[in-house]
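Weekly modeling sync, notes
Attendees: AB, CL, MP (scribe)

Item 1: holo prediction request
CL wants a bound-state model with iron/sulfur cluster before deciding which constructs to order. AB pointed out that an apo prediction alone won't tell us much about the pocket. Agreed to run with the ligand included and paste results into these notes for async review.

Input as submitted:
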Amino acid sequence: MSLKTPEEYVQSLKDLKIRAYVNGERIESVADHPAIAPHINTVAKTYQLAHQPEHADVMTATSHLTGEQIHRYTHIFHSADDLVKKIQMLRLLGQITGTCFQRCVGLDALNALYAATYDIDAGEGTGYHERFRAYLTRVQSDDLMLAGAMTDPKGHRALRPGQQEDPDQFVRVVERRDDGVVIRGAKLHNTGGINSHEILVMPGTGLKEEERDYAIACAVPAGADGVVFIFGRQSNDSRKLEGGCDIGNPRFGVVGGEAMVVFDDVFVPHDQVFLNGETSYCGSLVNYFATWHRANYGGCKGGNADVLIGATAKMTKVLGTEKNAVVRDKLTEMIHLNETTYASAIGASAMGYPLPCGAYMVDPMMANTVKQNITRNTYQIGRLSHDLAGGFLATMPGERSFENPEIAEYVEKYSRANPEYGAKDRIKLGRYIENMTSVTTLVEAMHGAGSPQAQRIVMLGQADIDKKIYMAEQVIDGDDDVEGLPLPGKSVSE
Ligand code: SF4
């Protein structure tokens, strides 16, 4: 079966026995824990939409390995059209869930490993690519939810992996056996990690030859011995458990339910190992992943911002300000900021080019520009939303105020604005805006897929400043090479 149903996805999580902790407590079943439910619901949507004929074009693709219809989240990009469709899929999912739907990290990791294993084999005569294709065939036929794990804890930031006081600050191989390897360390910020079937472990940085124990890429089943998930907390997550009008996004999470994943001497058999000691390919693997993932943000954040713009516009109706020209101009500015990032993500995809392995890469300059814009535009869109929604966002009373008869009447009476809407309508909208412009969501926009400086390094490298200087010199001092054309200040006859 190549397309799981949402019910099958939830059941597969119930069947999975993993070691996971939420708020310090070990939990029995990921699929039955209320703190994880919003994130599972979000991923379930990705499975559900693939079964809907009206979304099949963006949500599914044809496997280049088997010819079967598969989920686009398990597909290797083979054309600029594939890249564009991915961005369209992300915007659609963003519009429907209003949050992070988590599967993109695994998708980009699949593509990065597909390209990197091809490169390693071409350079070193290894057999990783064939092994990876066999793995990919299983991922596609089982429609697996994969978490991509790249960010190491990193310890002292001024020291390289091998120089750390604690050598486990970067995931490393601690034992090489005839049948596989044993890995130790941890990966942080793993989007959707706790509700995934498998984790794709990759190095998080370029490595030197003497750092070969840190050069490891492999697939680890979530239930493997020694894997421990420690679920992170999000803004106002305990409110989700209360119900009522204080929640914000009642069905889905705030960003991607990130978790720390610890690898406490985890054995990985050879058929799940895709890079083992080839340090010189780690940098390009990281680069493949980061470039694809940075372009994504124009799609998913575009969809999320559509919902935020909608919530803000609705809030202006609740306040009675919707016809005001200044209000409409600020909404227009939010739209402008959002479409700017979406357009650059589509541009990066449309300008994609084939890699030697046949997979399609997005335009690196545009992809990094997308992410750089996200680190600014998401804040600016949030700022405008706060501006239009007003200070009540930060001071609104909670759901329980309506339950106390001594104050309920006051809260209702003084929390209303336009009498067509009730106090709870205003609070529900306000909580959603609060969720989507909170520290968690803004920090994710800032640091997800790499901090702003990481993109600026690539942008400057890609820009070819010397070529631009040459252009300027030619325009300013170059000779006109078209005979007979007048130059400014001179007639043709002169
Ligand atoms: Fe996908 Fe966006 Fe979430 Fe990244 S932040 S996993 S691109 S939805």
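Recorded for review: The chain has 15 helices and 14 strands.
Action items: CL to compare against the apo run; MP to circulate these notes.
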